[in-house]
Amino acid sequence: MPRPFRCRHCGLDIPADAPGTSHRNHCPSCLWSRHLDDATPGDRAADCGAAMEPIAVSVRGDGEWVLVHRCGGCGELDLNRIAGDDNPLLLTRLAVRPLAQPPFPLELLARL
User: pLDDT tens for residues 18-35?
Assistant: First the structure.
């Protein structure tokens, strides 16, 4: 059964229940997580325990958004379902980051 936790990034006390998912694994305020799960959501089998930074969002084939987290300890990438109470501004910022910070100078677009 999920337990409440304190976010290691922003310090917010996080309730165990989360709208839209049965395994809350990230802070709804700052979207940071902790490397706890190994192969299965909720298994809490990972040995790492380091903070996981939200680096992007992805959209599954059914339209569901998922957070992409990168572990600051071991570098592992993990996909986590968003929850209904996640910060919509931070989710949007992650979604538009590739457009706001392209890997090439924007002036190149004018030449096309």
Answer: 887 777 889 999 999 988
